[in-house]
From TrEMBL, chains A, B:
Protein keywords: Hydrolase
Gene Ontology MF, one: hydrolase activity
PANTHER family xref list: GLYCOSYL HYDROLASE-RELATED, MALTOSE PHOSPHORYLASE
Keyword Hydrolase: yes
Biological source species: Psychroserpens algicola
Designated name of the protein: Glycoside hydrolase family 65 protein
């Protein structure tokens, strides 16, 4: 672990003391987001030390021209990346003419930052002695409104402590921003206008190529000891920036405050000619409301989220802080309000992979959103892929597939493939399976079959077609095989018969056939429409069945386990515990070929299949495979520990389950992978939630029934979580001795607890 | 085939008629080189159409910063590439004020170019009508002197045909050149000075990073109807160019001529402060000699080369032209005079891969140079790798190997790895085997063992160490394996147990052990020195033996063949003849993953092993493997057809052998792979030579004895070649009915013909 400095606290992420080397980590950890926009926890005032500046507007991306060393046929022309958006939070401060810059002060004391997750705000306070020996106390608070999601607010207080001082504020907007991960140093933004009116300023700009129009806006206000000052300002505008400057002579001990509202309006939501008008209206609205009232709304909005999504853990503050951090960041990233959006692996906390959609959504995030939100949210996530079906078919065509076969992209913003490593782009095709699985999972959990005849079945058909075409018949083995793939374990590339891929491929075909029959029976109009549209024939179905019924699965008689891929047993099978610490993480210490031919597993691969299809296997089979593969797993993917935690819990290995839980829940807080500076691992945070609910709580759906097998780590006194199951809210509280179930709602719910049926009455507490 | 327009001719490459779309192809095909420098056949005068400009100085390279999409640990920081060098051939011409530009003339007639391979010069002639209606006849001749290899010469004649005309020549030097394959558009050259004195001009420049100092120089002279004119000129110099302008009023029918000598001196051969002085001296020398006398020298120098290296083919002009083109280009690229140089796959004819060293040298080129030059030339090529041994050890260390294991780079200029595709850079490790094989092959052919104790053994030890460490024990198969490699067939990546790689790895270890014993016995001082230096222990030798004696070779009982790699039989085994033409070449039509999982072979892989180690297998085994693999081979590597040609000949399948021969010998002339515009395939040209000598001639070394099994394609009346075998020159002439052997030299030679011993007396013709 890199950099453990976050104070233990049940509800907040707290940093104490200023250390320049932590700045970039804290910028990631204390990022703010409201689903519509987000930003790293950059300082408002100028900071000349090392920092990674980032503001982001959901859905506003840039297709950066692909950069490769050696082009391979089929590579996409561009990589859609999240754009660093204009900065609206900036407030430069000078004190007696000297710029306040934490990197250059004589002294910085009592530095404290708090990301208050309960109420959704970020505060910072410190006492600084400048080079001119003026000592000031600074206190700031900032949040991005959940209620009015085009707006954020900042209060910035400065109190001179040892002298009267001339304190000038220069709040500004800055469109002169770049992406650190730009491939060709292209210009991403074209500024169209820079305006101001009264205390408001606006920059309208357009993204190159994608032509998103965005208005970045601010409104500012100065007060002294809480009283608003009416005062003159100077305005400095340039080609891509605008700043107001307020000059204030402040008496020692008095507090001068700049209040700044700011944010974005974009033509994703408004007419592009109305962007300033809408921004103006919103700024007027929040100015009238005032900072405090807006903050009060924020607390209430977060209280509503927490009421449904919170997990409490008693007796283990690190674990409690970890899970809340995960739940908080997931909600900052995606709230399900906008079906055009998805959950980027880095959310609004960084650039790399940021904002784009991966299979993480289907494999890890959907269960969290199904259980903690209205089921419409998960449905939106499914629909996102439905809307991309045509592009997935085009993507498959580029790779030589025909007849409506669909290959969903590895990384995407608008349905087109963006990634460009052949072993991933072309070969990590298991992603298609997760997309089908999510359709199954959504129905299993919500009981809402209607999505399938409406939209889901078309997606399933495209996916089944892909798998049938992608498999080939091996005469030598008299079976169908899937050659040349990369499984979820990306530490093996271009392998044959990755067990996970073959298994989910067969399952996709079987499930599509089964679903076709159900739709034919119950939704004949939809069935006719879909058959007409997809031109699916009985002949083709026979081909599907031929492949699914004769799929090859590598298996070792000696070890009595399915093999991750054909060649796994030929490797030198030295377990991770025998690997010197100096060699880890292997992705930083070893060359790629050495990783590939090693037995080390980046993330659960065979075990991922056992997780999805748990009911296909006995507990003994799970145990055997867990015992075989876990010792080779280095968990260098953020998506790895959660599945292991769930399976360890199922096997009753609570110590191990707890260890994996901590690792997944505090991955970023404790910076296990030495990379938190670049941003947070948002999608894996949903895996943390699963570790508790499915792992410790043992929650499953068994034949349309919620089922629990509650367990509790030795370190904990108790834990609780809530789930929304088919519009009934069930609260589960587990202690070492008992489990309490409490149902909110209008009707009874029959559940299974450790395999036994228990009926929970509405608004009644049941203890088991 | 793309673009067949080269006229059939025994000794020349002739193009008739001007077509803009052929310009880049002809620029490649008619490239000139003299081992020390080279250039594409760019026009001297300005040409505004599509052209690929290129001049190159042997050994002057630039380490271009690596560009990748996704960095993998272990990638080298840069790719050393051949540099486009300052242009010295340029002669701009204006006629009555209009620039002579073949892309803009009203009419171009009687356009003809000839690359005369017998005498080593390039000529061009045409009649052009300009937009100003002046009609001129132009005739040029150009060559790069073999004798004085820092100099080339041009004669450029213009005759106004329909009017008197003002004809101005502006010969120039231009250092404002760039590389088309530059990764980052870096500046490669830094110009230090631009000077002129009398009719000479000089630009001294330095390469960035590598700091090669190069002086580009010219001397010019104007004559009218063969009489030298003393006349004034104007000089235009700029920051990186210098031009002289000569103005001439020419009477209709008179011929005005510019003679230009030019070239390079560099600090690879001279003190960097003497570059201008040396250039001046050389220019004076050739000016005194004159164009015609220098050309006469050139003819004699080429006559000497042809006397030894020529292959004649009777009755098949396409085949004759093909082989001479190959021999000519090889000699233009590398003459063996400078042990610091090697044979770049594109020689002096293009940029991509250009000038760098690949395994092609050891696998394909050494036999040609051994047989057609003094044996010192082949020895220099071996020494090149000896000098890079330390870097090869460093390269292996970067990939995790220890204890002096050496991995030679895939692509290199100075011994450091340059390439950056993980599946090649890290995995195409078979290259190490070819480097060891060349040492064996050199000794087998020349009988000169002395190189081995002096230098070769150290290389062998480093290579054997690499193989032992790179193999791993598979408990499942109770054998040693080599996992995660790319064989010579680059259409499979990251496969396990590539038969060729495993076979050559075992052979390397066995051969090193055998050689160690021989050196111990016969060269005990060298042995002690080497053991001291390498710290080789008996323990380590035991490890080597353990691996070599227990190496795994994938084999199919059903097919009774060795398998190219573990998974080969699981592929869909559809032969090439069943692949629609529209799908070929697959490297242009298919995505990379599809190629990888297909059975299609880019170049001989298992068969390459059967070629190197022919005497380890029976003819029946060869036939079985040839019949199994050839139908899957698409020959999309220039290195593929020659091996197939040799083996088809051995199997008595002369039609097939002939077809492969044509394909290899006319690969560039007939542009089989649609890429001749980028440059020629120099290294595979040595394979063409092998196709005749080893394939049709059946030449082998059997127990220190030259052996022949002559065959002849039905299309030919006869063919002949010469070989230098241990300082005896043997000429072989094969016709349909008989084979004649003629020996130059001082002693008899016993050879085998079709397995029977025949003694050839010196200076006597023997007919068999």
């Amino acid at each position: 672990m890199n950099n453990i400095y976050i104070q233990p606290d049940n509800w907040s992420i707290i940093e104490e003391g200023f250390e320049a080397k932590r700045v970039k980590s804290s910028e990631s950890l204390m990022s703010l987001g409201n689903g519509a926009m987000g930003q790293r926890a950059n300082f408002e005032e100028h900071y000349s030390g090392e920092t990674f500046q980032g503001s982001y507007v959901a859905g506003v991306y840039y297709p950066d021209k692909t950069r490769v060393g050696w082009w391979k046929n089929g590579y996409p022309e561009y990589f859609a990346k999240v754009l660093n958006a204009p900065n609206w939070i900036g407030i430069n401060v000078t004190i007696n003419g000297e710029s306040l810059d934490l990197a250059k002060c004589n002294k910085v004391e009592n530095f404290r930052r708090e990301l208050n997750m309960k109420e959704g705000w970020l505060s910072r306070s410190f006492t600084a002695t400048l080079q001119n020996f003026i000592e000031v106390k600074v206190e700031t608070k900032r949040f991005l409104s959940l209620e009015i999601d085009e707006i954020g607010a900042i209060e910035y207080h400065v109190t001179p402590l040892n002298n009267d001082a001339q304190i000038n504020f220069s709040p500004y907007l800055d469109n002169g921003i770049t992406n650190e991960d730009s491939n060709w140093d292209d210009k991403f933004w074209d500024v169209l206008s820079v305006n101001h009116e009264d205390e408001q300023a606006f920059i309208v700009s357009r993204t190159m190529k994608t032509n998103f129009y965005v208005c970045t806006a601010m409104q500012t206000q100065v007060s002294l000891n809480g009283e608003i000052l009416e005062q003159d300002k100077t305005v400095n505008d340039a080609i891509d920036t605008i700043a107001f400057t307020y000059q204030n002579q402040v008496t020692k001990g008095d507090t001068i405050t700049l209040t700044k509202f700011g944010g974005y309006t974009s033509d994703r939501n408004h007419d592009k000619n109305e962007l300033i008008t809408v921004a103006k209206k919103t700024l007027n609205q929040v100015t009238e409301l005032g900072f405090s009232a807006l903050l009060e709304q924020q607390k209430q909005a977060w209280a509503k989220i927490w009421d449904m999504a919170d997990i409490t853990i008693e007796g283990d503050v690190a674990a409690q802080q970890g899970i809340r951090f995960n739940i908080f960041q997931l909600n900052q990233t995606y709230l399900g309000k906008d079906a055009r959006l998805n959950i980027g692996p880095k959310g609004f906390t960084g650039e790399k992979y940021g904002g784009s959609t991966y299979w993480d959504t289907e494999a890890y995030c959907i269960p969290f959103y199904m259980a903690t939100k209205d089921q419409q949210v998960a449905k939106s996530l499914l629909e996102y892929r439905y809307h991309h079906l045509e592009k997935a078919i085009e993507n498959a065509e580029k790779l030589g597939f025909t007849n409506g076969a669909a290959l969903y992209p590895m990384v995407t913003m608008n349905g087109e493939e963006c990634h460009n490593e052949w072993e991933i782009t072309f070969e990590e095709i298991h992603r298609n399976g997760a997309i089908a699985f999510a359709i199954f999972n959504y129905f299993r959990y919500t009981g809402d079959f209607s999505y399938i005849p409406e939209k889901g079945l078309e997606v399933l058909i495209g996916i089944a077609r892909f798998w049938q075409q992608r498999a080939n018949f091996s005469e030598a083995k008299n079976k169908y095989m899937i050659l040349g793939v990369t499984g979820p374990n990306e530490y093996e590339n271009n392998v044959n018969n990755n067990w996970y891929t073959n298994y989910i491929a067969k399952w996709c075909i079987d499930y599509t056939i089964e679903t076709l029959a159900k739709v034919k029976e119950g939704y004949s109009d939809d069935y006719s429409r879909i058959i007409g549209k997809t031109k699916l024939t009985d002949n083709e179905l026979d081909l599907w069945k031929e492949v699914a019924n004769n799929m090859y699965f590598p298996f070792s008689e000696t070890k009595n386990v399915y093999l991750q891929q054909d060649g796994f047993l030929d490797k030198e099978l030295i377990t991770v515990e025998n690997l010197p610490k100096s060699q880890r993480p292997i992705n930083q210490k070893w060359s790629w070929d050495r990783i590939l031919r090693s037995p080390y597993i980046k993330q659960a691969d065979t075990l991922q299949g056992f997780y999805f299809f748990e009911d296909h296997f006995t507990i003994e089979e799970l145990e055997r495979h867990f015992d075989f593969y876990e010792p080779f797993t280095v968990h260098e993917s953020s998506l790895s520990p959660c599945v292991h935690s769930i399976q360890a819990a199922k096997l009753g290995r609570m110590d191990q389950a707890y260890e994996f839980y901590l690792r997944t829940s505090r991955l970023d807080l404790d910076d296990y992978n030495h990379e938190v500076e670049e941003g947070l691992h948002i999608t894996s945070m949903a895996g943390t939630w699963m570790s508790i609910v499915e792992g410790f709580g043992g929650m499953r759906i068994v034949n349309d029934t919620l089922s629990f097998e509650p367990k509790i780590p030795a370190e904990w006194n108790g834990y609780s979580f809530k789930v929304n199951f088919r519009n009934l809210i069930l609260k589960i509280h587990v202690t070492k001795s008992e489990t309490k179930f409490e149902l909110e709602g209008h009707r009874d719910l029959e559940i299974l607890v450790n395999g036994k049926a228990v009926t929970i009455s509405a608004n009644n507490l049941v203890t088991v």
